[in-house]
Amino acid sequence: MGLVDRLNSDMKQAMKARDKARLSVIRMIKTALQNESIKKGTELSEEEALTVLSHELKQRKDSLQEFENAGRQDLVDEVSNEIAIVQTYMPEQLSEEDVISIIDETISEVGAGSKADIGKVMKAIMPKVKGRADGGLVNRLVRSKLN
């Protein structure tokens, strides 16, 4: 079952269960996917849909950080719930050990050996872990490996 089909099915269930929070998040995701599809001019592939989903998740995580810094616990709770809902549509996340092994493999592939090669390594790694690992975590691990 594709992402859009799963979203449609879950949207119907949320409507029946009168789960307003879940329904709202699903509608936001569907709107983001639809807007990207219109912008592109064709249907989105699963990989492109995953990119949109990753962007939605990142936006919410950024908002969560801002609300925590501002001391807005009401909004922190709301955004935390939204993050949990969006994450149900993301592929299973890689463990830190898996990410480290991919980093080691990629460093040897591109022949990186210093801090100056961080950009080259990140460019090669991100397509491999797209949607399955947080970019911030990957960046932090790459930097520690190349220091």
Q: Explain this structure to me?
A:
- The protein is mainly α and 147 residues long.
- It has two domains: 3-87, Uncharacterised protein YqeY/AIM41, N-terminal domain (Hypothetical Protein Yqey, Chain: A, domain1, Orthogonal Bundle); 96-146, Arc Repressor Mutant, subunit A.
- Helices cover 78% and strands 0% of the residues.
- The chain has helices spanning 3-17, 20-40, 46-70, 73-87, 96-110, 118-129, 135-146.
- The protein starts with a helix and ends with a helix.
- The model has no long low-confidence stretch (mean pLDDT 88).
Give a count of the beta strands, DSSP E runs of length 2 or more: 0
Subunit arrangement of the protein: single chain
Discrete helix count: 7
CATH superfamily (homologous) name of the largest domain: Uncharacterised protein YqeY/AIM41, N-terminal domain
Cα-to-Cα separation, first versus last residue: 43 Å
Q: What is the CATH architecture assignment of the largest domain?
A: Orthogonal Bundle
How many structural domains does the protein architecture include?
Answer: 2
Q: Write down the CATH topology of the largest domain.
A: Hypothetical Protein Yqey, Chain: A, domain1
Shape: globular
Percentage of residues assigned to helices: over 70%
Quote the beta fraction. Answer: under 5%
Low-confidence stretches: none
**Class of the largest domain, according to the CATH hierarchy?**
Mainly Alpha
Helix/strand order, N-terminal first: HHHHHHH
Integer average pLDDT: 88
Secondary-structure-derived class: mainly alpha
Q: Largest sheet, if any?
A: none
Radius of gyration: 18 Å
